[in-house]
Specification:
The chain is an all-alpha fold. The protein has three helices and no strands.
């Protein structure tokens, strides 16, 4: 007589799961993934350089201060940010009061 094998139990399924199942592969450690990504980045860079016709895509947004005048944009200092936040809170409270 032929005996049918039942479904695998949860414990049987867990025994087959290893670190690779959860994404802990050694592909970054041996350099294969990093080499693949480096190649893809180089291909994308070359493709972008090849499109250098001087036109800007309609969906392209320029960075603040990037208007071509040679002056870069400056980041505020932590003190400036803190001062602006305090001013905003002060204005908000004054608007509620008055």
């Amino acid at each position: 007589p032929r005996v049918e094998k039942g479904l695998e139990t949860r414990a049987d399924l867990r025994m087959k799961v290893d670190a690779a199942y959860y994404g802990y592969n050694l592909d970054e450690e041996d350099g294969t993934l990093l080499a693949y990504e480096r190649g893809k980045e180089e291909d994308a860079r070359r493709a972008l350089e090849g499109k250098g016709d001087g036109e800007v895509d309609r969906d392209w947004e320029t960075l603040p201060g990037d208007v071509g005048d040679g002056v870069g944009w400056t980041l505020p200092s932590p003190e400036d940010v803190q001062e602006e936040l305090v001013d905003r809170r002060r204005r908000k409270l004054l608007d509620k009061l008055g």
